Each structure stands twice: as structure tokens, then as C-alpha cells.
Amino acid sequence: MVLLNPGDEVLLPAPYWVSYSAISILAEATYKEIPSSIDTDFKITPTQLEAAITPKTKMIFFNSPNNPSGTVYTESEYRALAKVLEKHPNIYILSDEIYEHINYGEPTFSFAAIESMYDRTITVNGVAKAFAMTGWRIGYMGGPEWIAKACTKMQGQITSGANCIAQRATITALGAPVSKIQFMVDEFYKRRDLVLDMIKNIEGFKANVPKGAFYVFPDVSYYFGKTIQGTPINNASDFSMLLLEKANVATVTGDAFGAPDCIRISYAASVENLNEAFKRIRDLLNS
Ligand SMILES: Cc1ncc(COP(=O)(O)O)c(C=O)c1O
């Protein structure tokens, strides 16, 4: 709302967290998806980025580790995208790094760590993921001071401020050594492998290996055009509804994330529930 005006365009590398498109519309901008697929580990290329930019482009929303794909961009991939953005000085980068600590490989990188991007990157983060403090409702941003000040003006009229108890808890969380949450990351890592193993045994599911966050985003397009227990499956939304209605398993259709061949499975659930969910999915599809 601070940076976007009617007519401005926002670029959304897809798949993207569902709220980015809605947030863009609320700010009276339009958005354009840059598609990716399982074949590129759900990453966009510099060439795609260059091709998507128009004189109206004002912002790109970037999210790594990614919800819903679990994809993590490497430093060199960030730098290659930054090279394109360097040629377009009017574009701001909104870098959502809320899953920064939930990664299974190299440490995650940041757009703002690239000198040429520093003055036009707004980094957003929150305590909901790494610290499992979802209900505390604290998010924060880092960016150029003039943008931060404008955000304060805007936000003061919307949420009136975050409660002080949650702010104190956030100071403790952010001040603690990251090693304190390693046990959670280790647990997510085990669950990721468990889920990937179970996916392998399901006919027609094709998944990449997520490097962060806590989602797997399998391509289920194998089922499109088929009928399962009397229900025709034409897209990922039909498939997701089928799992919900016939197996009582909740997934999210890839449509919501701009990737209509996939469904999102969250493994921020107990091993017991994950095993049960996959048993039900297998039973349904085998029938
Ligand atoms: C990529 C991403 N950004 C931001 C959020 C917002 O998290 P919260 O509102 O809980 O801080 C989420 C939550 O799912 C997310 O996946």
C-alpha cells in the first residue's frame, strides 16, 4: 500500500504464497505470474524475469525458502536475478524470508545482501514458522528508512500495533542462538523424507525434493481426465476436494498458488497423522 499505485504491476514467481496476489489487488495494483514447474525445481530463470518486466513493473515478490514448493534459491541464482533487476532501477523487491531458518542445505541467502539491491529491498519476516509462534502474530520488516516510516503511518491505522507481550516474546526468540531451534529443523527434515518416501509409493504423484520450509508440492496431473470413485478429476482443485471428501485428508490445490498441476501437502503435522493421511490417500487411489 505504501509503494504500489493503481496501474502498477507486481511480478509473482509462481508458485507463490496465496496472499501475494490478494495483497497486490488490495493495493490496487495488478499482478503477473512468472510460471515455473517441477522440471526446474520450481525456480524462475533470469531470462523469464527479464521477459516479464514492463515499464509498469513496480515490484517483485520473492520468497525463498518457498511456500508451497519448499524451493530454496542459491546465492548464485539470487545474483543472476539481481543482474536483471540492476537494469531496472524502478523495481522494488519484497523478499519474504519467513522460512529462512527452516532449510536443509546451505544457509539461505537474502536479496538485501546484494549491494545493488540493498536500497530497494524490503525484507519481511515473522516468528510464526521458525519459532512455531504462529498465534503470537508478530511480523517484522527491514528496509529503507523512508519506506519503513511510511509503513508505520499506514499500519498504525490498520492494526494499531502489536501487543507488548508478543513483542517481548519475539525479542527472546530472535535473540536466542539459532541452534535452539535446530531440533525442530531436524524433525522437519525427517518428516520431509518420510513424506517423500510415501509419495514415491503413490502412482501418479511426482515431487521435487524441497530444500526448506515444511511443504511438499507434488504434481498430480496424471489424474486429470480420470474418474475416481465416481468423481471426475479435471484439475488439482477436483483432486484436492476428492482427498478431503473421500479420505478426510486436507491438502491445498495448487491453483491457489498459481501452479494448477500440483497440490500442497504440509508436513507440519505429527508423524502419526502423516502416516495415517498417506494410508488414506493410498487406499482411496488404489480403490
Ligand atoms: C511465505 C509466507 N509468508 C508469510 C506468511 C505469514 O505468516 P504469519 O501471518 O503467520 O506471520 C506465511 C504463512 O503461511 C507464509 O507461508
Structural description of this entry:
This protein has 287 residues and is an alpha/beta fold. The protein has two domains: 9-175, Type I PLP-dependent aspartate aminotransferase-like (Major domain) (Aspartate Aminotransferase, domain 2, 3-Layer(aba) Sandwich), CATH 3.40.640.10; 181-286, Alpha-Beta Complex (Aspartate Aminotransferase, domain 1), CATH 3.90.1150. Helix content is 34%, strand content 16%. The chain is built from eight helices and eleven strands. The strands form three sheets. The chain has a six-stranded mixed sheet, with helices on both faces. A three-stranded antiparallel sheet has the order 7-11-10, covered by helices on one side. It has a two-stranded antiparallel sheet with strand order 8-9. The protein starts with 8 loop residues before the first strand and ends with a helix. Bound molecules: pyridoxal-5'-phosphate.
Helix and strand layout, with pairings?
Elements: E1 9-13, H1 19-26, E2 30-34, H2 46-52, E3 57-63, H3 75-86, E4 92-96, E5 121-126, E6 139-142, H4 145-156, H5 164-175, H6 182-200, E7 215-216, E8 226-228, E9 231-233, H7 236-247, E10 252-253, E11 263-266, H8 271-286
Helix pairs in contact: 2-3, 6-8
The structure holds pyridoxal-5'-phosphate.
Pyridoxal-5'-phosphate (PLP) binds at residues 17, 63, 67, 96, 98, 126, 128, 134, 139.
